[in-house]
Amino acid sequence: MSLNRSQVEGIAHLARLEITEAQMPVYVDSLSRIIDFVEQLAAADTAGTEPMAHPLADQVQRLRADEVAEADQREKYQRNAPSVAAGLYLVPKVIE
Amino acid sequence: MALHNLTVAGLAAGLKAREFSSLDLALHFLGRIERLAPELNAFVTVTADRALADARAADERLARGEGGPLTGVPIAHKDIFCTDGILTTCGSKMLANFVAPYDATVVERWRAAGTVLLGKTNMDEFAMGSSNETSFYGPVKNPWDLKRVPGGSSGGSAAAVAACLAPAASGTDTGGSIRQPAALTNLTGMKPTYGRVSRYGMVAFASSLDQAGVLTRSAEDAALLLQVMAGHDRRDSTSVDAPVPDYRAELATPLKGLRVGLLREFFDKGLDPQVEKCVRDSIEVLRREGATISEVSLPSLPLSVPTYYVVAPAECSSNLSRFDGVRFGYRCDSPRDLLDLYKRSRGEGFGAEVKRRIMTGAYVLSAGYYDAYYLKAQKVRALIAADFARAFEDVDVVIGPTAPTAAFELGAKTSDPITMYLNDIYTIGANLAGLPAISIPCGFVREGGKDLPVGLQMVGPHFAESRLLSASHQYQLLTDWHKRVAPGYE
User: Fold this and answer.
1) Å between A96 CA and nearest CA of chain B
2) Does residue B373 have a pLDDT over 90?
3) Nearest beta carbon to residue B306 from set A41, A50, A56
4) Cβ separation A46–B379 shorter than 8 A
5) CB-nearest partner of B358 from A15, A39, A44
6) Beta strand pairing status for B116-121 and B43-46?
7) Interface predicted TM-score (ipTM) of this complex, two decimals
8) Inter-residue contact B326 to A82 (CB < 8 Å)
9) Active site residue B177
């Protein structure tokens, strides 16, 4: 096993995912297998190779003028929110 | 010929000649969906009222002598595309109540072209899967054998078109999610060049790999639909601002002189011998028509699966951080505090495979591992892209199988993620390099008393969609594999 339980608990916390007690061993096992599998990349000779972040090398991020292009659609967008009031998204109390 | 057996091109011609109306078509396909979609589990949402309204509007346009080549043609969208006012679930409990507030560009463009929306198709959750078994709405079945998978992640779109419940459907392809299901269900599946089709309004999985495309019953239909999907969109910052060729006009380009590179790494030990025979036989057809066949080698290509399973999860863990239980989507009951709200909403809202990929991504991006995994994978990605670029100095397209086997049985590969990931061994390279690729029907294998389709894959240089479509179309003029429909759905 390349990953142990406490590492997977740490990853789950970083990813903000609650993993049930019953499921934890399944993730320890499958994530270890995935990490073992991708480990084979280490053997590739990548000396002098630039990392590739984007498939079209000559593309550049376009800029646009900072102008208002959209109408206010807050109400429409908030229809999908679990909990809103007065145009605000509600969450459990953050500040005592 | 029954209406549902016609291609998009055939339907468009019939509409124009007033042999039938768009309303006739909508009613016919909705009837088939009602009767046959449940056993396949192909749709998440059927938009019957919308289809009838779209069809009436199309008929009015046609009556006035207006409308384009697709006006009145019914289509379905993969449920990853946002559709204004219509449920858009992405196959996830997380978005089971999400009514998109706007149309994706692909949806908008097909709608502007006059197509009629039949519904939204089932898919692997957040497009993460190769068998359509990770959907919150349950697995999709393959029309060629209901005990088998249709491939994934665009499995609902594939099953719907293969069963003639829709003449064409949209799909998305991050690691093979259009081509592999097309191969497993006897369809033509086109993944365009990265940036050719706008990703705006397409729920993001891995943004440097995701690309929208189409599943159809012929290359000609793929050309017709790609024509109105492709093109620059200012709302997608990676959309490419380059002219869109007339794909249909270029279908006439002959096979003679086409330089085909048989990809050595695609004919490896994992390839089923029956599948290999179909693929080699189809390459013979190309040779007889005057294509020149040579062998090419892409030495870094065998590393494409491990590269993908670093890059795609990394991007997925970042993209899916937006699902926080606050602004949209699933929220857990009675959260104790904000952290509990995040963790339980995500823990309960995402399925097992999505959580596995988010965690893989979080790990490879975390401090201490970033260089060893993520940066390393980005470098290997560059090697793979360079391999393809070198190959395209000598050949116009590279060719091989789309998938190593025909459709496998439901549940056969769900216990080990690596076994499932290796299904995409031949398709992932095109995504890593951003290249256009197509899968077309090229024969059948006999397994368990059923005929199962096999796909032939061609990959071309950036923006060579025309070449892939014309080669496919010319092959389809010489063969009739693509005309076969699964027994019971003819």
Assistant:
1) 11
2) yes
3) A41
4) yes
5) A15
6) antiparallel
7) 0.96
8) yes
9) yes
Buried b (16+ CB within 10 A) or exposed e, B353-369: bbbbbbbbbbbbbbeee
Decide if A74 touches B, using CB distance below 8 A.
no
Contact (CB<8Å) A51/B98: no
pLDDT at A61 over 80: no
Using an 8 Å Cβ cutoff, are B222 and B178 in contact?
Answer: no
Report chain A residues whose CB lies below 8 A from the CB of B343.
13, 16-18
The average pLDDT across B383-396 equals 98
Residue-level pLDDT at A60: 78
Sheet containing B212-216: order of strands: B43-46, B116-121, B74-78, B168-172, B212-216, B188-191, B437-447, B450-459, B397-401, B259-263, B292-296
**Considering the entire predicted model, what is its pTM?**
0.97
**Radius of gyration of chain A from Cα atoms?**
22
Q: Is A61 on the interface with B (CB under 8 A)?
A: yes
Q: Is the dihedral of CA B279, B280, B284, B287 positive or negative?
A: positive
Q: Which domains does chain B have, with CATH numbers?
A: 3-257+465-483 (3.90.1300.10)
Do B62 and B16 meet the contact criterion of CB atoms below 8 Å apart? yes
Residue ranges of the alpha helices (H) in B234-391?
273-288, 304-319, 338-349, 352-365, 376-391
- Strands B292-296 and B259-263, sheet pairing: parallel
B294 carries an active-site annotation: no
Q: Are strands B259-263 and B397-401 parallel, antiparallel or unpaired?
A: parallel
Pair of tokens at residue B458: 């061609």
B44 pLDDT exceeds 80?
Answer: yes
Confidence of residue B27 (pLDDT cuts 50, 70, 90): very high
What six digits make up the tokens of B294?
Answer: 């040579």
Contact between A82 and B432 using a beta-carbon 8 Å cutoff? no
- What pLDDT, in 10s, does the model give residues A68-92? 988 999 999 999 999 999 999 999 9
B363, B364, B388, best to mutate vs chain A, most A CBs in 10 Å: B363
Q: 3-state DSSP helix/strand/coil percent for chain A, to nearest 5?
A: 35, 5, 60
**Structure tokens, B390:** 């070198």
